[in-house]
C-alpha cells in the first residue's frame, strides 16, 4: 500500500477555542486512536492535500514530536460552506488486528457493450474492505471485458485477495446502460 508522511505536534490545550485558533493558523486538530492512549496533535493543513483530495488510499507514516506511528485516516470533518478541514481522526495499525478501509475501484478492460454504443456508468468509486494492514490493497480491480449492454458488475463479481468486502454483495459497481440514441435506433427498426 502507498504511504504518505505527516508531521504533527502535540496539543497542549484541548477545547473549542484552541481548535479554532489552530484552524486560523492553517493547522488541523487531530486525534490518533487505537493505542494505549489517545494522541491529540495538530498538523499543517497543506500536508493533507495528497491524503484527502485524491482517489487513492494511503497508509500514513505519522511523526508526532519524534515518535513514529503507522496509521490510516479513519474519519475527516469538513466545514459545510468553505470545505476547510475541521478535524481528522487516525487509526493506529497493528500487524495482528484487521482494519476496515475504503479502497478505490479501478476499472480495467474494454466492454463489448460500450463498443456497441452503451454508456459505462461507474456506480461505486470506493468499496469498503477488511484486512490485516499488510494485506490492504492499493485498489480493487473491476474487469469489464465481458460487460454487455444492460448488465452490471457487482461486488460479488470482484476478486478479493487476502481481504474481505464489507459492502452488500449485490451492490452494482459499474454498469453499461442503453443510450438514448441506441433506444431510438431500436425503435426505428421495429417500425
Automatic annotation (TrEMBL):
UniProt superkingdom: Bacteria
Residue span, Large ribosomal subunit protein bL25 L25 domain: 9-90
Function: This is one of the proteins that binds to the 5S RNA in the ribosome where it forms part of the central protuberance.
Subunit structure: Part of the 50S ribosomal subunit; part of the 5S rRNA/L5/L18/L25 subcomplex. Contacts the 5S rRNA. Binds to the 5S rRNA independently of L5 and L18.
Gene Ontology molecular function: any one: 5S rRNA binding
Span of domain Large ribosomal subunit protein bL25 beta: 98-179
Designated name of the protein: Large ribosomal subunit protein bL25
Source organism of the structure: Sporocytophaga myxococcoides
Family note: Belongs to the bacterial ribosomal protein bL25 family. CTC subfamily.
SUPFAM superfamilies, sorted: Ribosomal protein L25-like
Record flagged with keyword RNA-binding: yes
InterPro entries: Rbsml_bL25/Gln-tRNA_synth_N, Ribosomal_bL25/Gln-tRNA_synth, Ribosomal_bL25_b-dom, Ribosomal_bL25_C, Ribosomal_bL25_long, Ribosomal_L25_dom, Ribosomal_uL5_bac-type
Pfam family, one: Ribosomal_L25p
Keywords (A to Z) from UniProt: Ribonucleoprotein, Ribosomal protein, RNA-binding, rRNA-binding
GO cellular component, one term: cytosolic large ribosomal subunit
GO biological process: translation
Amino acid at each position: 500500500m502507498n504511504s504518505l508522511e505527516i508531521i504533527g505536534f502535540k496539543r497542549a490545550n484541548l477545547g473549542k477555542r484552541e481548535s479554532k485558533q489552530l484552524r486560523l493558523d492553517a493547522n488541523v486538530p487531530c486525534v490518533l486512536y487505537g493505542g494505549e492512549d489517545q494522541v491529540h496533535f495538530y498538523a499543517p493543513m497543506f500536508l493533507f492535500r495528497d491524503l484527502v483530495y485524491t482517489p487513492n488510499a494511503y497508509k500514513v507514516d505519522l511523526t508526532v514530536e519524534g515518535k513514529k506511528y503507522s496509521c490510516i485516516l479513519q474519519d475527516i470533518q469538513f466545514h459545510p460552506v468553505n470545505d476547510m478541514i475541521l478535524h481528522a481522526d487516525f487509526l493506529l495499525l497493528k500487524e495482528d488486528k484487521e482494519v476496515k478501509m475504503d479502497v478505490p475501484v479501478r476499472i480495467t478492460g474494454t466492454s463489448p457493450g460500450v463498443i456497441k454504443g452503451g454508456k459505462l456508468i461507474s456506480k461505486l468509486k470506493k468499496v469498503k474492505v477488511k484486512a490485516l494492514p499488510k494485506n490492504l490493497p492499493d485498489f480493487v480491480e473491476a474487469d469489464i471485458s465481458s460487460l454487455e449492454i444492460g448488465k452490471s458488475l457487482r461486488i460479488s463479481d470482484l476478486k478479493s485477495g487476502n481481504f474481505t468486502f464489507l459492502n452488500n454483495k449485490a451492490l452494482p459497481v459499474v454498469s453499461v446502460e442503453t443510450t438514448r440514441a441506441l433506444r431510438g435506433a431500436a425503435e426505428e427498426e421495429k417500425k
